[in-house]
# Entry
Amino acid sequence: MTRKLFVLNGPNLNMLGVREPELYGTKTLDEVRADCERVADELGFELFFAQSNAEHELIEWVHEAFRQQATVVINPAGLSFGSVSLLDALHMLSTPVVEVHITNIHARDADHRHSITSKVARTVIAGAGVYGYELAIRAADRLTG
# Structure
């Protein structure tokens, strides 16, 4: 049986590589995707990787992860701090959720310090840059066995 992994990315992450490189680095989302594909393949995951600036689309992908019993790695980005709808969708999952943030959100300004979506995450990785995605996938592997 193939293990399924959804790596979901929230608003503005399509601008990686050009948006505030001093905070987010210079790697593009396509480069992050390639890194995720490599690690997922190494660990035997079937990968679905997506990004949207639309909250409803992320919620639909979480619903699909629920239907497929997929493990979820998610960088909710700005939705981390106020999307009860996304939190509710993630709450439905019986599979592990690993939350990843490129920056150390705990060291940021008050608006970017408290992720409500962390309430449903088994593991949160923050501040490792885009390498955090690899760490998150490896954590997902350990959590799913």
